[in-house]
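Translate sequence into structure tokens.
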Amino acid sequence: MSGVSAVRRQPESQPAERASRRWFPPSAGLPRLIGWLVWLLGILTIAGVFLPEQRRRIHYLVQIVGVPVLASATATAVATVLGVLLLVLAGGLRRRKRRAWLAAVIVTLGVALSHLARGLEVEQAGVALLVLGPLIATRREFYAVGDPTTRWYAVRLPIQLLVASIALGMIALVIRPGSMIGHPSLWEEFQEITLGLIGVSGPVRFTSDRATDVVAATSLAFGVVVAFVAVYLALRCAQPRAVLTAEDEARLRRLLELHGARDSLGYFALRRDKSVAWSESGKAAVLYRVVSGVALASGDPIGDPEAWPGAIEAFLELARRHAWIPAAIACSERGATVYRRHGLDALELGDEAIVDIAEFTLDGRAMRGVRQAVNRLERGGYEVRIRRVRDVGPDDMIELVHVMSAWRGSSVERGFSMALSRLGDPADADCVVVTAHQAGVLRGLLHFVPWGDCCLSLDLMRRDRTAENGLSELMIVRLLQAGPDLGIERVSLNFAAFRAALDRGSRIGAGPVLRVWRRLLVVASRWWQIESLYRFNVKFHPRWAPRFLCFASGRDLPRIALASLEAEALLVRPRPLQRMLHREGVV
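Result follows.
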């Protein structure tokens, strides 16, 4: 698809070395195969409960062997629950979860025993044992660890659900006493609901078959839900709280002093809601955050490019160990090339607009629109101030932070790979603040972070909604004109997603696929600033630097896309879910 192009593949001088660094190990198909086998066994186990032959076998056992009907019914309920558990465990097996493997072995053995208890179903028990063999034979393939931050949460929440299930069942019996025969005690009602969670009838008798069926089905449904939640929380991908320690930040700042000029997004690695994977030498690091099971790295690795492979290997090893899906967003072409050598592929996401100050001018017909906007606002009394953060007084900074928050379009600060998302921190003394004032009233604000010693990268752009159009253009123009006095040579502006598609799709002769793709981007611009940012950047006639998304497998792209949108705060979880996960240290 145009606008989403792959990085050009260059000949590999050492194919054997590249193969040894592939993200997926050679036997990656085994866990997926075992996962599908376990999933199929779960389907067969659940389906077997409803086979017509089951009743005939139970009748035969009761009359000939003397097996109690209650025992067989219990085995049927247990088999149903175990079948559901196998369906859940299959996903953990495909992600190489060690806990999933251990649980699958136990549950598979339980399935075999339950089939024998239900009605001497030797053939179905044999199928379960056939699956158990490959499970044990491939035990070394399941090495991914669980999440220690959710271990107690995985115990506490199912217990809460269990208590709630019993309480709701008791309430349902109490408020409808006419559905029960006689006057059972609270203890008998408690036994009825508790035993019903595993599909067993209790001491309470009901006035109709319908009431009996409703209570039994409801109780068993609650039991299955509790079991499902317990297994899911125990096996879900680790998503630890991303925190950049003071020691890590100090080390990263030293690396940026030496190598910060290589990447315009390097300073954004200092966001304190990221984790860091260091190379063995400590000369490079990958900054990442885990979102919904995706280990999402931001930008190029920080530090000496010769040490990038070590940092990437450490990052990928963390992903392998925790069964995370590895990805890197907003990489430069050089960074994407290094990631590709480690088994990841790359897609072009868009382009970064970079303005060379020495070549910028307001003269000429091409700059007529910007020039007119600047002159109009200056005639309207707008003035621009350009300061380093260190030169902004405490009172002024408090005002800037307050106004910046008030002007924000949503309650959530957006940004992950291309935003610092803080203002006025003493550690960011070299950042540049550009403010626009009208009659002494603050009307607009731009914040730039250092890009090496002589360049800047745009962090945030805010304006008063009642200010005149063209205010952002005025502030950027004045910054570019003041560049030589500040010692600035280049300025990185906004990132234009899918710029190539928007550009080529509007030209005469564009193909039907490209035109359709452009139209989809224009429609998406109603919710996300895709076309508008591209149009804004074009005004300054920048040079375009491509940025890439690196990923391990094409089938992971939808999940990576959702994780990227969530990391950038373009998709936001509901507040109750955020509070719950925050309390448990999950995000």
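Note: The first helix runs from residue 15 to 20.
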